[in-house]
Amino acid sequence: MLNDTPVRLSRLRPYQCLPGRAIIGSALNGRGLSFTVVMARQAGKNELSAHVELFLLAKNARRSLDGVKCAPTFNPQGGISLRRLWSRIAEAGLEPLAAREDGHSIRLGRARQLFLSAEAAANVVGHTASLLLEVDEAQDVEREKFDREFRPMAAAANATTVYYGTPWDDTTLLEQAVQSNRERERRDGVRRHFQYDWAAVAELNPDYGRYVEGERERLGENHPLFLTQYALKTVSGGRLFRAGQRAQLQGTQPRQSIPTNRGESYVAGLDIGGQELVEPGASTTLRAGSGRAREHDPTVLTVARVVAPASDAIVQEPRLEVVEHLTVAGEKHDELFVRLADVLGRVWRVRQVTVDATGLGETLARLLARTLGQSVVRPLRLSTESKSRLGYNLIAAVNGGRLKMYAADGSAEWAEFWRQMELARVAYRSGRTMNFFVDPASGHDDYLMSLALVVEAARDLDPQPRVARGRSAPTRQGQS
Q1: Same structural domain for residues 261 and 151?
Q2: Which three-class secondary structure state does DSSP give residue 35?
Q3: Is 108 a domain residue?
Q4: How far is the C-alpha of 149 from the C-alpha of 116, rounded, in Å?
Q5: Do 141 and 8 share a domain, yes or no?
Q6: Among 20, 31, 144, 168, which residue's CB has the most CB atoms within a 10 Å radius?
Q7: CATH code, domain with 291
């Protein structure tokens, strides 16, 4: 008989079996407990979930009961879970007795497992979770949507509820469930929260441990993605760079106005400002250290030398040495274009320049691409996702010691750069996105953005240099 078919958890590792047995025990005995399962990325949360689903489907195959699993999206997350369950059914030899239905459910006998989207527009009302209610990537599921439309699905059968995921900040559905379960554990001693960081997984899987150690080297231990996905710690907003990180960013290379050696290659990041008119006789050079918002939003170009990593380096990504800033305020964009095209193309012969192509920058980026070449100019429209990527990559480059600012030269640019690095803030948002900025009341963030764009310019860049053919000249001090 189908419900007598043995479905074992023997393929799972011990840290997966513990929550698996607790979930199944609560579900089979109608205890209606809530569990939180927090495991490092790629540690096997979804594999555990598929085994639990298969076990409950087989045990209840003669009954018309549903299990429900919701995810932040159906494509890809819900679909991945559905395919994983189907693979486990096939491995158990139960495929002839199973069927896929409606593109979002699997039936085994009379029992059924549903996979639903928790997106805001998804219509999910009306389903009942009689076997089990699961939340995949619970840190990315909106609490209001879950409380209003999914939580009531467990009410009729007092179904067990499981929240799977990795931490983000203190406001997520997952973190609220974790804190609630820990409080209940303190009251009655029944374990409801199961958490295994990357070190616990590495004890049983050395290859996994070596991979995560490489990620720690690449990102840094305090990188928000490493903290949340592997160390399983929540993040909170505040300073983008702590004092130790700003110390890592300090370099010893001198500032230079043109390439000094023929064998060097360069990349650049261009944050485009406004083109307001400047009063006659007013300087277009940025004045640093005012401590308040200034009248003009400058255009800032950051140029960095690309240094190939050593052959034995753990992280095979180039080192970037910032060697120059060009700062212009109030210049009309047609005039600015001519100047930038000459500086980037003739003087520095950059291999890549990333341009903020949001708003006013779109036209300038297009003109530069037409002049310097599509392969040289990388326009970037800022969005929640693209700016998050800029921030994460900037933090990783600083943490890994792969980004260095030129040595103090007494210039206004040097002073303003460090002022912005100290004032820079970070805010974390849903979907593992983040925003980095300088409070407008304190000034602009153009040097900060230009620095992030220069890191983006070197992303996926072949570290082998293209010869820069600009005129050689000694290192210089002062304005560009």
Answers
A1: no
A2: strand
A3: yes
A4: 11
A5: yes
A6: 168
A7: 3.30.420.240
Is the residue at 398 inside a domain?
A: yes
Say which residue the tokens 């997520």 belong to: 172
Q: Which of 153, 187, 202 is the last residue of a domain?
A: 202
Determine the angle formed by the axes of helices 14-28 and 45-59, rounding to 10 degrees.
30
For residue 139, the 8-state DSSP code is: G
Which is nearest to 159 in space by CA: 188, 135, 176?
Answer: 135
Of 180, 202, 224, which residue constitutes the final position of a domain?
202
How many angstroms from the chain centroid is the CA of residue 125?
31
Query: Is 409 part of a structural domain of the chain?
Result: yes
Decide if 246 contacts 403 (C-beta within 8 A). Answer: no
Burial-class residue 188 by CB neighbours within 10 Å (0-12, 13-18, 19+).
Answer: exposed
Q: Which domain holds residue 330?
A: 237-457
* Max intra-chain CA distance, the chain: 92
Do 22 and 127 sit in the same domain of this protein? yes
By C-alpha distance, which of 93, 111, 130 is closest to 8?
93
On whether both 159 and 255 belong to a single domain, the answer is: no
User: How many domains are there within the chain?
Assistant: 2
244 class by beta-carbon count within 10 Å (0-12 exposed, 13-18 middle, 19+ buried): exposed
| Domain identity same for 372 and 431 | yes
CA–CA separation, 366 vs 361, rounded Å? 9
Shared domain check, 246 and 165 = no
**What is the pTM assigned to this prediction?**
0.85
CA dist 171 and 396 (Å) reads: 25
Q: Output DSSP code: residue 473.
A: -
Is there a domain that residue 221 lies in?
A: no
**Same-domain status, 169 and 290:** no
Q: How do the pLDDT tens digits run along the chain, 480 residues long? A: 455 554 566 589 999 999 999 999 999 999 999 999 999 999 999 999 999 999 999 999 999 999 999 999 999 999 999 999 999 999 999 999 999 999 999 999 999 999 999 999 999 999 999 999 999 999 999 999 999 999 999 999 999 999 999 999 999 999 999 999 999 999 999 999 999 999 999 999 999 999 999 999 999 999 999 999 999 999 999 999 999 999 999 999 999 999 988 889 999 999 998 654 333 343 334 333 333 344 568 999 999 999 988 766 666 788 999 999 999 988 888 899 999 999 999 999 999 999 999 988 999 999 999 999 999 999 999 999 999 999 999 999 999 999 999 999 999 999 999 999 999 999 999 889 999 999 999 999 999 999 999 999 999 887 555 444 444 444 444 443
What's the alpha-carbon Rg for the chain, to the nearest Å?
27
